[in-house]
Amino acid sequence: xxxxxxxxxxxxxxxxxxxxxxxxxxxxxxxxxxxLITLMxxxxxxxxxLMHILSGIDRPESGxxxxxxxxxxxxxxxxxxxxxxxxxxxxxxFFNLMPYLSSxxxxxxxxxxxxxxxxxxxxxxxxxxxxxxxxxxxTHKPYELSGGxxxxxxxxxxxxxxxxxxxxxxxxxxxxxxxxxxxxxxLVNLQKERGFTIIMVTHNxxxxxxxxxxxxxxxxxxx
Length: 223
Ligand SMILES: Nc1ncnc2c1ncn2[C@@H]1O[C@H](COP(=O)(O)OP(=O)(O)OP(=O)(O)O)[C@@H](O)[C@H]1O
Ligand SMILES: [Mg+2]
Known about the structure:
CATH superfamily: P-loop containing nucleotide triphosphate hydrolases
Distance between the termini: 27 Å
Helix content: 25-40%
Number of domains: 1
Shape: globular
Mean pLDDT: 92
Bound molecules: adenosine-5'-triphosphate, magnesium ion
Largest sheet: 6 strands, mixed
CATH topology: Rossmann fold
């Protein structure tokens, strides 16, 4: 069994009126699990599109994605939902926190989806929030938190069900340097402590250099 994510001849295009835009033009790579993988490349090169396919939010046009020799890209809808709920965590640039819910409730959401009861969910959520330094912010709603704190709630939510792989698409894109460094340090330390895989898109060269594996994308291809 190979302890990797293998991507084979992956393509994706979108129809735009009469035109077809080829966004991914044949991606081939094999990535080790348990490492920090960074993905850089110009705007529009296809990074987010690739992340969406790897995280099961979108389907490839052709080609395959294998997680430990299991073909994720061939999963049924039910299996892909299970994959998203139980195997992976996602951190997007714009947080996607529910505005009317407290930190604890926001972090509890993936656990409710996985069928956990309120008491257990809240305990795990509090543990996860404490891990990202927010033990004093359990009942705050997003608008009562700073940008960096909101991003930390999103990180707590992404790790709360102990996923194997975390997909982070420019997780520090709209934070200042100090907060951005803090978030990165937090993610890198969590990755080392827990040994999960992080695949992270970034425009920041310094962060890109931190990757155990450093991917670069250009015009729909890895270079
Ligand atoms: N749903 C869609 N329909 C049509 N075109 C799309 C769709 N999603 C993405 N595209 C196009 O695919 C290309 C790649 O988009 P993608 O979001 O993957 O780029 P990116 O590398 O993440 O860029 P950025 O660094 O700006 O986030 C863009 O030209 C975009 O317009
Ligand atoms: Mg993007």
